[in-house]
Amino acid sequence: MGNARRRFLKRGPGPFQTWIVKAADFEHQLQTSRRARKRLAPLAVATAQEPPLAASGRVSHRWLKFWAPQLLAWWIAVLFMIGSSFFAVGGMRAAWPGLAAMQWLDNGMLGPVFFTGSLFFTAAGYLQFYEALNSDFPGGASKRRFVGWCPRNLGYLSSLSQLIGTVLFNFNTADAMIAGLGWKGEDLLVWTPNMVGCVCFLVASQLAVVEFSHRWIAFRPGQLAWWIVALNMAGSVFFMASGIASFTVTDGSMIGPFTASAGTFAGAVCFFVGAYLLVPEQFEVDAPTVDP
Question: Which of the four pLDDT bands, split at 50, 70 and 90, describes residue 106?
Answer without folding.
Answer: confident
